[in-house]
Amino acid sequence: MYRFPTETRIPPGPPGLLNGSVPPAD
Fold first, then answer.
1. Where are the annotated segments for Disordered (predicted)?
2. 7-25, pLDDT tens digit by residue?
3. How many CA atoms lie within 13 A of 1 on its CB side?
């Protein structure tokens, strides 16, 4: 199963947006 990456995105975005450090709670 796919889990949210921990600051492994390229390019790194804001926390909770594209970075994936925080799941999208919008």
1. 1-26
2. 555 565 565 554 455 555 5
3. 2
